[in-house]
Amino acid sequence: MYSHAQLARAIETWSTHPDPAVKASAAERIRKWTSVILGMEDGSITVGSRTPVADTPAWVTLEVAHGGFATGRLLAAHDEAADRNEQALGAGREALIARLHTGAYRVDVPEQGAIPVALRLLELGHTEAALDLL
After folding, report:
1. Which residue among 11, 21, 28, 35 is least enclosed by CB atoms within 10 Å?
2. Whole-model pTM?
3. Where are the domains of the chain?
Protein backbone atom coordinates (compact mmCIF):
# COMPACT_ATOMS: atom_id res chain seq x y z
CA MET A 1 0.00 0.00 0.00
CA TYR A 2 1.22 3.51 -0.86
CA SER A 3 1.00 4.87 2.68
CA HIS A 4 3.03 1.97 4.10
CA ALA A 5 5.68 2.42 1.40
CA GLN A 6 5.92 6.14 2.23
CA LEU A 7 6.32 5.32 5.92
CA ALA A 8 9.04 2.78 5.11
CA ARG A 9 10.89 5.37 2.99
CA ALA A 10 10.73 7.92 5.80
CA ILE A 11 11.98 5.38 8.35
CA GLU A 12 14.84 4.39 6.03
CA THR A 13 15.87 8.03 5.57
CA TRP A 14 15.63 8.74 9.29
CA SER A 15 17.69 5.69 10.24
CA THR A 16 20.44 6.07 7.63
CA HIS A 17 20.91 9.73 6.72
CA PRO A 18 23.77 11.56 8.46
CA ASP A 19 22.33 15.10 8.14
CA PRO A 20 20.34 16.14 11.26
CA ALA A 21 18.04 18.42 9.23
CA VAL A 22 17.17 15.57 6.85
CA LYS A 23 16.60 13.26 9.83
CA ALA A 24 14.27 15.85 11.40
CA SER A 25 12.29 16.13 8.17
CA ALA A 26 12.08 12.34 7.95
CA ALA A 27 10.87 12.16 11.57
CA GLU A 28 8.06 14.58 10.69
CA ARG A 29 7.13 12.41 7.69
CA ILE A 30 7.12 9.35 9.97
CA ARG A 31 4.70 11.15 12.31
CA LYS A 32 2.41 12.12 9.43
CA TRP A 33 2.37 8.71 7.74
CA THR A 34 1.85 6.94 11.05
CA SER A 35 -1.18 9.18 11.66
CA VAL A 36 -2.52 8.43 8.18
CA ILE A 37 -2.16 4.67 8.61
CA LEU A 38 -3.60 4.57 12.13
CA GLY A 39 -6.53 6.75 11.04
CA MET A 40 -7.24 4.47 8.09
CA GLU A 41 -7.08 1.42 10.36
CA ASP A 42 -9.42 2.80 13.04
CA GLY A 43 -11.82 4.32 10.51
CA SER A 44 -11.31 7.93 11.57
CA ILE A 45 -9.82 8.73 8.13
CA THR A 46 -11.49 7.82 4.82
CA VAL A 47 -9.05 8.18 1.93
CA GLY A 48 -10.56 9.76 -1.18
CA SER A 49 -13.46 11.42 0.61
CA ARG A 50 -14.18 15.15 0.40
CA THR A 51 -14.45 14.94 4.20
CA PRO A 52 -11.74 12.40 5.00
CA VAL A 53 -11.64 12.97 8.77
CA ALA A 54 -14.64 11.66 10.70
CA ASP A 55 -16.85 14.29 12.38
CA THR A 56 -14.97 17.14 10.67
CA PRO A 57 -16.68 19.60 8.29
CA ALA A 58 -15.40 19.94 4.73
CA TRP A 59 -14.29 23.55 5.29
CA VAL A 60 -11.73 22.67 8.00
CA THR A 61 -8.10 22.84 6.84
CA LEU A 62 -6.43 19.49 7.42
CA GLU A 63 -2.78 18.58 7.66
CA VAL A 64 -1.90 16.32 4.75
CA ALA A 65 0.97 13.99 3.98
CA HIS A 66 2.47 13.78 0.48
CA GLY A 67 -0.16 12.92 -2.10
CA GLY A 68 -3.04 14.54 -0.24
CA PHE A 69 -3.50 11.92 2.48
CA ALA A 70 -5.13 13.50 5.54
CA THR A 71 -3.33 12.86 8.81
CA GLY A 72 -6.34 13.67 10.98
CA ARG A 73 -4.69 16.76 12.44
CA LEU A 74 -6.59 20.03 12.08
CA LEU A 75 -4.13 22.80 11.21
CA ALA A 76 -6.07 25.57 12.92
CA ALA A 77 -6.14 23.50 16.10
CA HIS A 78 -2.40 24.00 16.48
CA ASP A 79 -1.46 25.49 19.87
CA GLU A 80 0.11 28.59 18.28
CA ALA A 81 -3.15 29.43 16.51
CA ALA A 82 -5.13 28.90 19.71
CA ASP A 83 -2.72 31.16 21.59
CA ARG A 84 -3.08 33.81 18.91
CA ASN A 85 -6.88 33.68 19.09
CA GLU A 86 -6.87 33.74 22.89
CA GLN A 87 -4.70 36.86 22.83
CA ALA A 88 -7.06 38.45 20.31
CA LEU A 89 -10.01 38.01 22.62
CA GLY A 90 -8.15 39.23 25.71
CA ALA A 91 -5.38 41.72 26.28
CA GLY A 92 -4.05 41.34 22.74
CA ARG A 93 -7.21 42.63 21.06
CA GLU A 94 -5.89 46.14 20.44
CA ALA A 95 -2.56 44.79 19.19
CA LEU A 96 -4.39 42.51 16.75
CA ILE A 97 -6.54 45.37 15.48
CA ALA A 98 -3.38 47.45 14.97
CA ARG A 99 -1.80 44.58 12.99
CA LEU A 100 -4.93 44.33 10.86
CA HIS A 101 -4.78 48.05 10.06
CA THR A 102 -1.11 47.86 9.06
CA GLY A 103 -1.40 44.60 7.14
CA ALA A 104 0.99 42.86 9.54
CA TYR A 105 -1.36 40.00 10.46
CA ARG A 106 -0.61 36.65 8.84
CA VAL A 107 -3.24 33.99 8.17
CA ASP A 108 -1.69 30.56 7.63
CA VAL A 109 -4.97 28.66 7.28
CA PRO A 110 -8.41 30.13 6.56
CA GLU A 111 -9.80 29.36 10.01
CA GLN A 112 -7.24 31.71 11.55
CA GLY A 113 -8.95 34.60 9.80
CA ALA A 114 -12.29 34.23 11.59
CA ILE A 115 -11.48 36.10 14.80
CA PRO A 116 -9.65 38.99 13.11
CA VAL A 117 -12.56 39.40 10.69
CA ALA A 118 -15.03 39.27 13.58
CA LEU A 119 -13.04 41.93 15.44
CA ARG A 120 -13.02 44.14 12.36
CA LEU A 121 -16.78 43.66 11.91
CA LEU A 122 -17.31 44.64 15.56
CA GLU A 123 -15.06 47.66 15.07
CA LEU A 124 -17.26 48.74 12.14
CA GLY A 125 -20.45 48.25 14.16
CA HIS A 126 -21.60 45.03 12.46
CA THR A 127 -22.22 43.06 15.66
CA GLU A 128 -24.75 40.62 14.20
CA ALA A 129 -22.45 39.73 11.29
CA ALA A 130 -19.56 39.18 13.72
CA LEU A 131 -21.67 36.87 15.87
CA ASP A 132 -22.90 34.98 12.80
CA LEU A 133 -19.29 34.43 11.73
CA LEU A 134 -18.27 32.98 15.06
Report:
1. 21
2. 0.64
3. 2-75, 79-133
